[in-house]
C-alpha cells in the first residue's frame, strides 16, 4: 500500500537585526543553507516550500 503523508515544520526564532526585513533575510539564508546541506528534505521527504515572516518588532 502506498500512503501519502503531509508534514509541516513550524518554528520561531529571535534574531537581532535592524529591521523585520533584515531578520527575515537572515532566517531565509539559514534555512536555505540547512536545506542545501540536507538534500534529503527535498529528495526523500518531498519538501517543496519554506516560508516565513517577522511577527514581532522588538523595538
Task: Describe this structure as you would to a colleague.
With 59 residues, this protein is an all-alpha fold. Helix content is 37%, strand content 0%. It is built from two helices and no strands. It is elongated. The termini are far apart. The mean pLDDT is 89.
Query: Low-confidence spans: pLDDT under 50, at least 5 residues?
Result: none
Number of helices: 2
The radius of gyration over CA amounts to 14 Å
C-alpha end-to-end distance: 53 Å
Q: The biggest beta sheet, please?
A: none
Mean pLDDT: 89
Report helical residue fraction.
25-40%
Secondary structure: number of strands: 0
Overall geometry comes to elongated
Q: What structural category arises from helix and sheet content?
A: mainly alpha
Quote the beta fraction. Answer: under 5%
Succession of helices and strands = HH
